[in-house]
Design brief:
heterodimer, A: 923 residues, alpha/beta, Ubiquitin-like (UB roll), Alpha-Beta Plaits, Rossmann fold, 7-stranded mixed beta sheet, 6-stranded mixed beta sheet, 25 helices, 37 strands, globular, B: 431 residues, de novo design (two linked rop proteins), 3 domains, 5-stranded mixed beta sheet, 4-stranded parallel beta sheet, 12% strand, binds flavin mononucleotide, binds iron/sulfur cluster, binds FE2/S2 (inorganic) cluster
């Protein structure tokens, strides 16, 4: 970008071409007041607040030369009218004046105008105290108003735009930010305008109203108190609030949030700016879905089963009983008879301590962070191994970047990614969305392909074949292990046939592969619909990234969308049967959750520790196994279905009640702070795990340490990190959570150097909001990030530490059972029966379960919307009302996962299930 | 002196020229034939530029020059005929459509050919229901005779022409708001630049011209630049269909060569026929409500772009409103600004809030008889806070009535508030 020199109120600054006058002034430390302008959106010049005087060097028409005065200075020709700074791009030699009488008169005039239609009800307005209109009036406005108060126009207020957001028409200054945000950033163009003149106002155009998962952000960018959330409205005055930095653990994006506290209550949840993660946005689940923390249903004391009843007990007794029972089982049957599950939302510290307890203390290898139900994702290593390079910045990528979204629905699985990917497309990047079903992201896609479910592998093989030909032509074929054998296998691929099987055109398929290869930067994102095919598919995506040379550097690589806010952390910490912490291989792998249920039923596993996960609810088939256990301890915030059958229940602190670190889908480790005391006797999970370990001291049969050690792993070549599994015999004497983090940094390969101290040093960041406190520029909502942006550990491929081989296993085409002709697509929803949505406004957004079928299939089977349908597979059947979805591919049916009343696991037979449909009742 | 040869309001001489056959009989569509058969698009652009045709929609911008702004080689392009005619005091477009629709259509086809576009729209104001039907009927006739559609007159040139009726909004006459409306969006102006010629309808290069502008094109093409320039003045060539209304004896549309004195328009028996009851002229608004006012002692100004600009006003849309000494200046300002307030789109602050506030104050003064001395400086400030600061010209236009009234008739405001103040005091004391 060429640099442009401008002078603003006498201050010379140099800014990139294309910068507007308002932003340039900011560089010069000069504030030009704005209302409609927002640095994340295109300027519109509506509010006229940013009027300034602008001049440019006078150019001699004849010579094209700048005219100079006697002193040799360029003569400046001032424009005849004031100009809006937000819409005027800088030009060389431009002179801007922001404090002339004319400018002041105009700016004061605009503020006076705005105030004529403003109700001035600041004392009862939620925005009061962080309101740009208040602040700008103080700085630039008139001291008093000449407007006759009785001339004010009044409107009914507030009117709900949806059930989450309310509009106060009297306060609205019609800056259009909310509408433009929905159009430009969220790509949910559900807001609009109605009427004109003084009656012009904001409306919702969608049914249901304000149908967007990103609606809360409008209340942050609204420069007045016109938009308020039903969640925060009238709950506190903002100056009473203390912002505590935290991390949202609802999904793998790991948005930076602030818990705005009054005393111990979370009054509202706000975004913290982090360009590497969520910019200044969060989704509505992150904003409204944290009310579970203060639920009255929280457990507050340990419980123990006496005479069949769970009754309150003390920590001393609870821990003693847990230790004794585990010790008994270990003494009688060895550590192998114990198994542990820990959920993918817990912090790295909890997960690390948990696996240490199992591997080092109890000597059990049976660990998992999943519940073992048929459709759940395999333990994905590629998202780390070939993960996006360090320094990847989705905020700036655009032209030259191609993002391939394969089998993922970011809006539902990781909402903020939808915004980020959209931004890339907006800035000129290519966004290729390849899915077996419609998703909202398709709307922003530059290329959109729907493949027929079941044909994925043929599809990816064809992509690989085209990609290989393309890199060969360009002479960019990577030197990677397995290339030759891959070349041989791909020779037998008929691209035409594959395209036909997938139901896409050959050209479209070729375009996807070629665009991806040709791009300067390439990212592949995959999610639930890709995991539904299994590891062969994700490996093919890895093959594609490697072949195309899109790994091992910033802005290139894979991003895996896994359920749970810290699934990556769980995989990294080794809460899994197949690898130890840091992907170190184990001499003796353990049982997966799936296998644990079998072992428990057979009595080979006799005791379990279930922490922050609820198998009895998520996978009802596990109940029998759970009930068969000799001893079950459940550690959770709530009395979950699993806890109800436990022998001991240990109450844990929520993420808001303790410090901890979480690792997001891009391997970024971020820290959340304690915002409130834990209720009752609740303790942080890692503390409880340590308590169990300490209580076990001396009770167990010693086991030869050698059986646990393992050294293979991505980072194993590195002498200093030879340790592999954490050191045996390390004392359980963590005093604070940062001690645990230090232990992680010391012993988990890849995490070296990531301590709470180093995380704290990533500094204050921000370009928006009250970052320059005393400055009035864009004042209002505080997005300040005092906690830093987190640290991203390098992907093994960046350090040439990958063990990845280019290979494709032969496609096993299972014989089609004609009794089950439909492919079942399972859609992960953002608003599902997640018990952590409890007490939030989002509960009413959770749909009732249904099965969706295509229009043609509905006609063929005589099934209409609302009819009750039996969906059956070789495993069983469930009954659901039908929905007809126009653009669903024929031959596939879609059922949303995790809705109460639709126990999908009853019919799932594996990653991919085939089903039959029978109509059982007319609507 | 009446024109011997009409260019625009040809129905004056040929009363049934709206009839397709009559139009054909009087040489209709001959200019089109000449154009598509014997002239290149560039030649027509040059002719229109050389003829000095200026836009009749308000700004008077040279039409040929505007056409030349189209970026080279960017297609598709669009031609929009602006028939939103909502400026108070302006009604010549309506007469053209009712009485001479084919000449307009011919003008559109030639202009579209000249700018190399294949889709054109006539955007009519919402209230023009009957006029729109007239146009549609005429367009169907043109299609049937091969003047529109594919391969026009065997020339290989294609054009489709559509009529789009708005929902009744003055702002939709503003070129970018018109395009928004045509695209199915809320009718509000866009930020400029980009200008329509570069990125207009659907982001494509677009030329937008007034009805009266385009109807001038066939005669120019048919009879030539020199003939056209024999009308009017050097800088304002041609004729202008003035809409005359107010306290004159004969309101109506009158086509005059540019440069005729205002007095002649008002007093000539062929045109205005003088003032009703011979009362004196107090205010003349010469170019639609958006134009600054003239007073009774400025009637010698010539009706052309330059002379009116020199007199501190503008020719605008050519809607001449003549008011006699019975009107009160504050009241006229109130009525006119009430119009602008009603039509403000609301997009920008100074226009949305300024017109509202202006009207509130003026209403209090003129209708509620409740003015206050402070109101006068406040009115001055309100229009100053608007002037030059609005997003589009509607807001700027709203300044003109109040500014003119305050500048030209300050004493009327003072009297008003003084009397009202006194009345108010009286009311208080007698209570
Ligand atoms: C508020 C407003 C209303 C306007 N209304 C009209 C109109 O009704 N008809 C018209 O031709 N031009 C109108 N204009 C002018 C158009 O924006 C545009 O300049 C014109 O159509 C260009 O055509 P011309 O070059 O042939 O004059 C209006 C402008 C403004 C600001
Ligand atoms: S509601 Fe807020 S953001 Fe939306 S237009 Fe009104 S003031 Fe602007
Ligand atoms: S996108 Fe994910 S991490 Fe971000 S706020 Fe929403 S649920 Fe939380
Ligand atoms: S000046 Fe008036 S009509 Fe024009 S954009 Fe502003 S509010 Fe709308
Ligand atoms: S016009 Fe520039 S900030 Fe609104």
């Amino acid at each position: 970008m060429p640099e442009i020199h401008v002078t603003i109120d006498g201050v010379p600054v140099t800014v990139p071409a294309g910068t507007n006058v308002v932003d340039a002034a900011r560089v010069a430390g000069i504030s030009i007041p704005v209302f409609c302008y927002h640095p994340r959106m295109k300027p519109v010049g509506m509010c006229r607040m940013c009027l300034v005087a602008i001049g440019t060097p006078k150019v001699d028409r004849a010579t094209g030369q700048v005219e100079k005065d006697a002193e040799g200075k360029p003569i400046i020709a001032m424009m005849p009218k004031l100009m809006t700074g937000c819409t005027t791009p800088v030009s060389e030699g431009m002179v801007v004046l922001t404090t002339t009488d004319e400018v002041k008169f105009a700016q004061r005039g605009i503020l006076e105008f705005l105030l004529t239609s403003h109700p001035l009800d600041c004392p009862v307005c939620d925005k009061g105290g962080e309101c740009p209109l208040q602040n700008l009036t103080m700085e630039w406005g008139p001291g008093n108003s000449r407007f006759d108060y009785s001339d004010k126009v009044h409107f009914e207020k507030p009117v709900p735009l949806g059930d989450l957001i309310l509009l106060d028409r009297e306060r609205c200054i019609l800056c259009g930010r909310c509408v433009r945000y929905q159009d430009e950033i969220a790509d949910d163009p559900v807001l609009g305008y109605e009427n004109r003149g003084r009656n012009w106002h904001i409306i919702s155009k969608s049914d249901p109203p304000f149908d967007s998962k990103f609606s809360g952000n409008t209340t942050d960018i609204c420069p007045v108190g016109a938009l308020t959330t039903a969640d925060f409205r009238f709950r506190a005055r903002v100056w009473e609030l203390k912002s505590v930095p935290s991390i949202c653990t609802h999904c793998p994006v790991g948005c930076n949030i602030a818990l705005d506290m009054r005393h111990d209550q979370i009054k509202r949840v706000m975004p913290r700016e982090n360009g590497a993660v969520n910019d200044i946005w969060i989704c509505d689940k992150g904003r409204f879905g944290q009310r579970f923390v203060e639920s009255t249903e929280r457990l507050t004391t340990p419980l123990i089963r006496r005479n069949g009843e769970l009754v309150a007990t003390t920590w001393d007794e609870a821990l003693r009983v847990v230790a004794e029972r585990f010790a008994t089982i270990q003494r009688e049957a060895g550590g192998e008879a114990l198994a542990g599950l820990a959920g993918p939302r817990l912090s790295n510290e909890d997960l690390f301590a948990f696996q240490r307890l199992f591997r080092e203390v109890l000597h059990s290898p049976h660990l998992d962070h999943r519940v073992g139900m048929p459709g759940e994702p395999h333990a994905d290593n590629l998202g780390t191994e070939l993960g996006v390079g360090s320094g990847t910045n989705l905020m700036t990528l655009g032209k030259g970047t191609t993002v391939l979204v394969f089998g993922a629905d970011p809006e539902e699985e990781a909402p903020l990614y939808m915004l980020r990917l959209r931004g890339i497309a907006d800035r000129g990047g290519e966004l290729i969305v390849v899915n077996p079903r419609p998703t909202k992201l398709e709307r922003s896609a530059t290329h959109r392909l729907r493949y027929r479910a079941g044909s994925e592998l043929q599809f990816t093989r064809a992509l690989l074949s085209v990609a290989l030909a393309e890199v060969d032509t360009q002479q960019r074929t990577p030197d990677f292990p397995g290339l030759d054998s891959l070349r041989t296998t791909l020779q037998s691929i008929a691209v035409d046939a594959a395209a036909e099987a997938a139901g896409v055109t050959v050209e479209a398929l070729r375009t996807v592969a070629q665009r991806f290869v040709q791009a300067e930067n390439g990212i592949i994102m995959y999610g639930a619909d890709a995991f539904a095919v299994g590891p062969m598919l994700t490996h093919d995506l890895g093959n594609l990234a490697v072949l195309a040379g899109k790994v091992g550097r910033a802005n290139n690589g894979l991003i895996a969308l896994l359920p749970g806010g810290n699934a990556r952390g769980a995989l990294d910490m080794g809460v899994r049967p197949d690898y130890g912490p840091g992907y170190t291989s184990l001499s003796q792998p353990g049982l997966s959750a799936r296998e644990i249920w079998g072992a428990a039923t057979e009595g080979r596993v006799r005791g379990m520790y279930v922490m922050g996960i609820d198998p009895a609810n998520d996978f009802p088939a596990s109940r029998g196994a759970l009930e068969a256990l000799e001893f079950l301890v459940v550690q959770d915030m709530f009395l979950t279905a699993t806890a109800q059958v436990a022998h001991v229940v240990l109450p844990s602190a929520s993420f808001a009640e303790r410090d901890g670190t979480y690792t997001n889908a891009e391997r970024r480790v971020q820290r959340a702070r304690q915002a409130r005391p834990a209720p009752g006797a609740c303790r942080a999970d890692w503390t409880i795990v340590q308590g169990v370990a300490q209580a076990l001291a001396g009770m167990l049969v010693p086991v030869a340490a050698a059986s646990q050690s393992a050294t293979e792993g991505y980072w194993s070549q590195d002498g200093s990190e030879q340790e592999g599994v954490s050191r045996n015999g390390q004392a359980w004497n963590y005093i604070t959570v940062s001690d645990v983090a230090d232990a992680i940094a010391d012993t988990v390969p890849g995490y070296s150097g990531i301590t709470h101290t180093s995380l704290a040093q990533t500094g204050k960041v921000g370009t928006w909001g009250r970052q320059t406190n005393e400055d009035y520029f864009y004042d209002g909502t505080n997005y300040e990030n005092t906690e830093g942006v987190g640290l991203q550990y390098p992907a093994p491929v960046e350090q040439q530490r990958t063990t990845f081989t280019l290979e494709t296993a032969p496609i096993q085409s299972a014989p089609i059972d004609e009794r089950y002709p439909f492919v079942l697509l399972v859609q992960r929803l953002l608003y599902d029966a997640d018990p952590l949505l409890r007490d939030s406004l989002l509960v009413s957004h959770v749909p009732a379960p249904y099965v969706a079928i295509s229009t043609n299939d509905s006609r063929r089977l005589g099934i209409q919307a609302g009819d009750r349908v039996r969906v059956s597979s070789s495993a069983g059947g469930i009954e659901l009302p039908a929905r007809v979805v126009v653009d669903l591919t024929d031959g596939s049916v879609l059922i949303p996962a995790h809705l109460s009343g639709a126990p999908l696991s009853m019919i799932q037979t594996g990653p991919r299930t085939h089903v039959a449909l029978t109509k059982i009742a007319q609507r | 002196m009446a024109l011997s040869e009409y260019i625009v309001l040809r129905d004056v001489q040929i009363p049934d020229i709206a009839d397709f056959d009559v139009y054909l009989k009087h040489g209709g569509y001959e200019a089109l034939r000449q154009a598509v058969k014997h002239k290149t698009p560039a030649e027509i652009v040059t002719m229109v530029r050389d003829a000095g045709l200026r836009g009749r929609g308000g700004a008077g911008f040279p039409t040929g020059v505007k056409w030349g702004f189209l970026p080279k080689g960017v297609y598709p392009r669009y031609l929009l005929c602006n028939c939103d005619e909502s400026e108070p005091g302006t009604f010549n477009n309506h007469q053209i459509i009712d009485r001479n629709p084919h000449q307009l259509i011919e003008g559109i086809i030639i202009s579209a050919y000249a700018i190399e576009c294949h889709t054109a729209y006539i955007y009519t104001r919402g209230e023009f229901a009957a006029a729109s039907r007239t146009l549609e009927h005429a367009i169907a006739q043109a299609y049937a005779s091969g003047f529109l559609g594919k391969n026009i007159l065997g020339s290989g040139y294609d054009l489709d022409l559509y009529v789009h009726r708005g929902a009744g909004a003055y702002i939709c006459g503003e070129e970018t708001a018109l395009m928004e409306s045509l695209e199915g969006k809320i009718g509000q102006p866009r930020l400029k630049p980009p200008f329509p010629a570069v990125a207009g309808l659907y982001g494509k290069p677009t030329i937008i011209n007034n009805v009266e502008t385009l109807i001038n094109v066939p005669p120019i093409v048919e009879k030539g630049v020199a003939w056209y320039r024999s009308f009017g003045t050097e800088k304002s060539p041609g004729t202008k269909a003035f809409s005359l209304c107010g306290h004159v004896n004969r309101p109506g549309n009158y086509e005059l060569p540019f440069g005729v004195p205002l007095r002649e328009l008002i007093y000539s028996p062929e045109y205005g026929g003088g003032m009703r009851e011979d009362r004196p002229v107090k205010i003349v608004v010469p170019g639609g409500a958006s134009a600054p006012w003239l007073t009774g002692d400025q009637l010698d100004v010539a009706l052309d772009y330059e002379s009116l600009a020199a007199a501190g006003t503008m020719l605008g849309s050519g809607g001449v409103i003549v008011l006699n000494d019975t009107v009160s200046a504050p009241h006229v300002a109130y009525k006119m600004d009430e119009f602008f307030k009603h039509e403000s789109c609301g997009k920008c602050t100074p226009c949305r809030e300024g017109t509202h506030w202006l009207v509130r104050v003026l209403h209090r003064m003129t209708e509620e008889h409740h003015g206050h001395a402070d109101d006068i400086p406040t009115l001055h400030d309100i229009y100053r806070q608007m002037a030059g600061n609005c997003l589009c010209l509607l807001g700027e236009s709203a300044v003109m009535p109040i500014k003119s009234a305050l500048d030209l008739f300050p004493e009327e405001f003072e009297t008003l508030v003084k009397v009202q103040h006194a009345e108010h005091r009286l009311e208080l004391t007698s209570r």
